């Protein structure tokens, strides 16, 4: 007997049904927005990450040498792959390019609740527009996807910022500040004490007075204060862009879910503009549910024409935690419209009924294991069959079948030639 | 600039739309039959193949050592994984277990038309029934999936046999025959000359007279002749089982697609009963499109209770070749219901119309890139928009919008408050 690998999950039908319903809902929203599905490979050249990504992601790669001597890796994220695809067909693709896909990725991480080594994301990106409407469309899609799942503004919020605000404010200090270190401190600020946070800011080059002032300024999230404090073109432009994105989000119906949160920095190096993270409003799921933002330099860094880009990638594990917490996670069970039960040698007639019901699009099972009446009924119950059609030798001798409603247990006989007849979805009620 | 890896394909939206339509059709058929979707990992312990599979598949593994020192492999097929999953929950799962999934697999093979190193399959299996109805249900599902794709009996056939017929006939010779070698010869017989075929049979232990006689007997596909020639319990039981499966297939509507073909041996070692392969009836696609069969011993070999099993796994690359050859492959293009075109500062009203149309479930794009009228119209054309709704400043001043039918080029104005109004899917025709 073999075991699965740690961090790699098997999904049995009940749980898979809930996941599939969730994925279908999210992808349906992407379709309606005109995002187009793409299909991407599980393996890429490892250099796509080792050449330029941060240490953390490189350390977590499932990388190896293939039989042809290529240095390859299971892809830990989608963005470099879509960048490669955009570059490969840059001339033919009409812009903006709006793509989505749902698939697994792999990182050798510590396994914990909501974090596996194999994890699923739906990536949604727009390439070829630097306009705030593109950022806002990403936010609007994410909001629609979440509300389609049954979530509301009571359950989630998008904490939104702009990559240049933190950097620009830090840059405006006359002292020599290590911006990267200071942003890292901001990123941690939610998980550590104020004193520890200020210590880190001081280590990055601020005085204690400056650290306290900076903390207060950023925590307030007041864009006008931030702009006048920094008084630099970079910060003014960032604040203006963020306000334009929020204005477009208002028109697109997503503004109500957005909270300005200047602590939001996002870990990945390639973000260049607006960044945002989705959080559980109640804080019960403490980590970020997912995040996204603008990454205008990535395509060029992959050898393409300069191409602005913005995207988001909900991860299905954390999304499931949020939905479960909010009480909107689908039932983890299979559903069945009909079970066609055979008693005696009635296979031909049972098969005829089964086929006619399947032709109408219903989920229909019938006996393929030669089981007894009781075993078939137990099985029908285990698959949550709504209606059982009993095709018995004796009934058939009278040209009848029995229709049993599984919830009430009620049953009755009806003429076999009338089942299913011209009814689209005949149930016990239709004959009672 | 980075390249993708040989044998790993990128699917851009047009081709992906055709693939998705195909996968949806196949999976919808699986749903109607009551097969339940499962989710399975990309990586498994390599021992699941190196312990017992044939040399060929082991040589083709993408195997490596992970950071935890585990000897892992990208999965080259699904069957060992589902066997592992059945064994892990053997007691709780109600039987028969009917599972399906669509996902990629990986083998380091020679790349050729219809064969990539990353390839997609829809696996459909029944565990827990040794009855011929289970084999027939697999055949019936495959037939329904293919006819749902628009294929007919003129396009495909299932060549069906039973694993024990060839072996049993060879065993019935008094001379000492190497059965494995002889079956391998039969497997090759379609691709080599008769003389070469007979030479291989002689190498396996038959005389030339016996080789000719054996060739004629097997090629005839006459089950009665085969049964009386061998005159052993093993062959009699195999013939009887095959006939029962065909009888059930008749009731299930799949018999018409089945041709008895005793040359059909299937490469994989784990088959134990009925085996079949789907072929292009015209022979234009010369290789097998996909195959399946019964593998009753596999679950036990994975440490589980003896559990009969039967399954099939259409591969999407060869299936695409068949559909293209038959002229039923979907158009490789994206479709769009509406493009909402903005002229001047009309974002709020355009957004209102866009949202209302999306709420009705339509695929709707609008400008997120600040493009000109002409550029937006070109873009709408490139995404095959059916209707363009032009929201212009001047029209809006008159409380109007313009509805343009993209096929005819016809357009007209209508009152903005009436669009979309209470119409589910308003087009030019509704206002003309």
TrEMBL record, chains A, B:
Its main location: cytoplasm. The keyword Cytoplasm applies. Residues 32-432 form the Aminoacyl-transfer RNA synthetases class-II family profile domain. One of its GO terms (molecular function) is ATP binding. It catalyses: tRNA(His) + L-histidine + ATP = L-histidyl-tRNA(His) + AMP + diphosphate + H(+). One of its GO terms (biological process) is histidyl-tRNA aminoacylation. It holds the Pfam family tRNA-synt_His. L-histidine binds at residues 77-79, 107, 121, 125, 266, 270-271. The keyword Aminoacyl-tRNA synthetase applies. One of its GO terms (cellular component) is cytoplasm. InterPro entries: aa-tRNA-synth_II (IPR006195), aa-tRNA-synth_II/BPL/LPL (IPR045864), Anticodon-bd (IPR004154), Anticodon-bd_dom_sf (IPR036621), His-tRNA-ligase (IPR015807), HisRS-like_core (IPR041715), HisRS/HisZ (IPR004516), HisRS_anticodon (IPR033656). Its EC number is 6.1.1.21. Keywords: Aminoacyl-tRNA synthetase, ATP-binding, Cytoplasm, Ligase, Nucleotide-binding, Protein biosynthesis. It is found in: Cytoplasm. Belongs to the class-II aminoacyl-tRNA synthetase family. This is Histidine--tRNA ligase. The lineage of its organism: Archaea, Methanobacteriati, Methanobacteriota, Stenosarchaea group, Halobacteria. The gene is hisS.
């Amino acid at each position: 007997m073999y075991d699965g690998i740690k961090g790699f999950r098997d999904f049995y039908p009940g749980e898979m049904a809930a996941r599939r319903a969730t994925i279908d809902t999210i992808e349906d929203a992407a379709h309606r927005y005109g995002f187009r599905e793409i299909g991407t490979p599980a393996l890429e050249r490892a250099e796509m990450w080792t050449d330029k990504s941060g240490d953390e992601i490189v350390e977590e790669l499932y990388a190896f040498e293939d039989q042809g001597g290529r240095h390859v890796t299971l892809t830990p994220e989608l963005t470099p792959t879509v960048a490669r695809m955009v570059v490969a067909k840059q001339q033919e693709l009409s812009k903006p390019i709006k793509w989505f896909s749902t698939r697994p990725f792999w990182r050798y991480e510590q396994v914990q609740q909501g974090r596996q080594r194999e994890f699923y994301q739906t990536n949604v990106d727009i390439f070829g527009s630097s306009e705030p409407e593109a950022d806002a469309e990403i936010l609007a899609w994410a909001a629609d996807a979440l509300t389609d799942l049954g979530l509301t503004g009571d359950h989630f919020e998008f904490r939104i910022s702009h990559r240049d605000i933190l950097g620009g404010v830090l840059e405006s200090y006359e002292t020599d500040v290590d911006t990267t270190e200071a942003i890292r401190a901001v990123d941690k600020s939610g998980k550590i004490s104020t004193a520890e946070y200020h210590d880190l800011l001081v280590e990055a080059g601020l005085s204690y007075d400056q650290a306290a002032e900076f903390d207060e300024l950023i925590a307030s999230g007041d864009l006008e204060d931030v702009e006048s404090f920094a008084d630099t073109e970079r910060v003014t432009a960032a604040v203006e862009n963020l306000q334009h994105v929020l204005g477009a989000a208002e028109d697109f119906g997503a503004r109500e879910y957005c909270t300005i949160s200047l602590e939001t920095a996002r870990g990945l190096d390639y973000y260049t503009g607006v960044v945002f993270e989705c959080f559980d409003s109640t804080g019960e799921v403490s980590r970020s549910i997912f995040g996204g933002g603008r990454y205008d330099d990535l395509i060029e860094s992959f050898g393409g024409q300069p191409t602005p880009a913005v995207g988001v990638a909900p991860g299905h594990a954390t999304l499931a935690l949020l939905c479960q917490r909010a009480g909107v996670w689908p039932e983890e069970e299979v559903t069945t419209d009909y079970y066609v039960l055979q008693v005696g040698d009635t296979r031909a007639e049972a098969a005829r009924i089964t086929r006619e019901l399947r032709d109408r699009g219903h989920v229909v099972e019938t006996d393929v294991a030669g089981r007894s009446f009781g075993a078939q009924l137990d099985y029908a119950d285990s698959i949550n069959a709504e209606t059982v059609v009993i095709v018995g030798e004796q009934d058939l001798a009278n040209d009848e079948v029995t229709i049993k409603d599984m919830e009430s247990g009620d049953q009755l006989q009806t003429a076999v030639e009338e089942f299913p007849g011209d009814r689209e979805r005949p149930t016990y009620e239709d004959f009672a």
